[in-house]
Write a structure and sequence with these properties.
3 copies of one chain form a homotrimer.
Chain A lengths: L3 E8 L5 E4 L1 H11 L4 E6 L5 E7 L3 H14 L13 H10 L2 E7 L2 E2 L5 E7 L5 E10 L1
Antiparallel strand pairs in A: 1-8, 2-7, 3-5, 3-8, 4-7, 5-6
């Protein structure tokens, strides 16, 4: 077995934002020459995350950010002086990694699924690591 | 290495429901002829998820669904017209995939752990993909 | 391919606590003789979890525990008689497993990232399983 690996850059432009990175990941898989396997994605930041959710209607992304802002309180007596403790909490709730199967050199996502880089403390220049393992 | 793969169907009967799929996964592993390895589970839907939690007392599952309904607000001015934005939020909070080790052709779960398919927008006919990697 | 595997013990001393286990995992990788690959971590308990977040300022850990206590209601009419339903909910929100790449026999974490064992119902004697897969 020989895994392939690399990183991609993600530039965010808002404080909180979901960025669809599905096409970039599919291109990586397409260029890997592996027909079938597992794609592992890893976010090395502590105030951003990765998730898989609906991409057809952009309103879903807006609604999820609105819900997250409501779920994670902004007015607790937080001690971290940077002021972004809610962003850290969102990161641990949503998670730092994703795993997706691929077949025929394409991500085996569900009909409505897209992969999103989740910015919770932007705008920033971010990156994301990937590894591809053949089946 | 040769991964094995497949899908199973899950039929849900309520709007929100946790369905214990542990026995089905253990049977898949048992039939795989692999003694030891990692089992990857993937949910291809955007309003359902996978989780691992206590299965001994069914009240835990009820309590988790009650907590999720309380945690994710249902009365925000959501824009997604389908009306199921809270279900999408729950999906990203709980997660689309799980990973469990197996040994002696059986899932290496903790004493109280079971694997649950989490329906957040049912009832529906769902499916779940799996891949098994030998150690 | 030959995965390596094992378990480590984690002793917690509070009801809720984040314990940095990064050094222990790095030592395991260092002793594995694998230069590059993926490290999979698995928590076999139903009221504790694993997460990756900031480790530089201990206040972030305190803030995340404070946020979790606020996010997951403690006063719902829970049915599970053990009284720890919020701990189960936190476990499914934060997740039972983590996956991290490694290179040069060292975890490929981001600058501020550390791996935390999350105790939500301590103090207890816990354990955590790991598997290391070469690239």
């Amino acid at each position: 077995m020989t895994m392939k690996q690399g990183s991609i850059g993600v530039v965010t432009s808002s404080r909180m934002e979901l960025i669809d990175i599905t096409n970039q990941i599919n291109q990586i898989i397409s260029e890997s020459d592996y027909d079938s396997g597992i794609c592992f994605l890893y976010n090395p930041h502590t105030t951003s995350a990765l998730t898989i959710n609906e991409g057809a209607d952009p309103a879903v992304q807006e609604d999820m950010l609105a819900a997250l802002k409501k779920i994670v309180p902004s007015d607790l007596p937080y001690k971290h002086l940077e002021g972004n403790s809610p962003s850290h909490m969102m990161t641990s709730m949503v998670g730092s990694s994703e795993m997706v199967f691929f077949e025929k050199s394409s991500l085996n996502l569900g009909t409505w699924q897209r992969i999103f880089f989740c910015e919770f403390d932007g705008p920033r220049k971010r990156k994301m690591h990937w590894r591809i393992m053949p089946a």
